[in-house]
Amino acid sequence: MKTFDYARADSIADAVAAGGRFIAGGTNLLDLMKLQVETPDKLVDISRLDLNRIEERADGGLTIGALVPNSDLAADPRVIAKYEVLSRALLAGASGQLRNKATTGGNLLQRTRCYYFYDTAAGCNKRAPGSGCEAIGGFNRIHAILGTSDQCIATHPGDMPVAMRALDAVIVTQAPGGDKRRIAIGDFYRLPGDTPEVENVLQPGELITHVELPAPPAGRQLYRKVRDRASYAFALVSVAGVVAMEDGKIASAALAFGGLAHMPWRDPAVEAVLVGQAPSDAAFAAAADALLAGAKGFGTNDFKIPLARRVLTACLKELTR
C-alpha cells in the first residue's frame, strides 16, 4: 500500500476543508488501496462526525445521515414499514459484518467490480484514462448491457442505490466554502461516455452529508436480486420496484435496475408503458421491450438481455398480483 497522510475531522467544515479522500467504513476504499488501484495522498477520517442518525421529515419521509451503517438502516422500523424495497436491497448486499461497517454515503460511491479495473496490469479507462477497455472483447460476464460506450462497459455494483433510485432519493452535500447542494439521485451518477473515470457529479472536496427519502410511495414494493450464489455476490440483474394498482390497472410504477449499467438504471419509458394498463403478459413484454430497446451484449454477458426480461416480468407479476 502506498503511504498516505491521515487526518481526523471533527466537523463537516473541517472535513471539506482538509483536502483529501474521505473515509468512514472503508469497506471499498481500503481494498482498492491495498491493490494500488486507489492511491490517495491523504485520507480524511469522517467516521466520528454527527451524521449517523435517521430522522423523520415533515412530509413523512426520512433524512438519513451519511454515516448511518447499512445494517442500522436496513433494520430501522420506519424503513421496514414504509420503504421495504430499501430494507430488502440493503439485506441483499455483502455480508452482515460488512453491512455493520459500510455507510450510507460510502455505499452510494462504490466503485465497479470489473475484473480489469481491479487488475493494475490490465487496460482500464476508468482506472487509467486512455489505457483502453480490456473488458470489451474480454471476459465480460458481469458487465453492462445498457448505457455503455466504447470507453467502458463496467457496471455499478450497488444494491442500496438501486432502491433509492426507485424511491426518488435526494443526495445532500456540502462543499468547501460551505455551499450545500441537493442532488436528485437520477442526476447524481454519470454514464461512461468518453470519461468513465468521472462516475458522479461530486466536485473535489464535496462531501455527502445526508440522503433524503420523500414520503413513502403508495403500492407494493419489491427488490429482487439475481446472482451467481445466494449470498455475498453482486447482481447480474436486480430490480427495485414500486407499483400501485387502482381499479385493476397500474396507477403508478417506479422501476430501477442494477447489474445492467454504469449506474442504477431507470428509464421513464418502461414505466410509461405500464401506467394505465391492466396486468398482462403483453403489458409486461412491452415494458421489457422498452427497457431493452438499446441493450447490447459483448459476448459472455449476452445472457443478461433475456435474463433481464424474465426477471422484470416475474417482478411485475408479483407487484401487480
Automatic annotation (TrEMBL):
The keyword DNA-binding does not apply. Keywords: FAD, Flavoprotein. It comes from the Bacteria. Pfam families: CO_deh_flav_C (PF03450), FAD_binding_5 (PF00941). The keyword RNA-binding does not apply. PROSITE patterns: FAD_PCMH (PS51387). One of its GO terms (molecular function) is FAD binding. Residues 1-218 form the FAD-binding PCMH-type domain. This is Xanthine dehydrogenase. It comes from Sphingomonas adhaesiva.
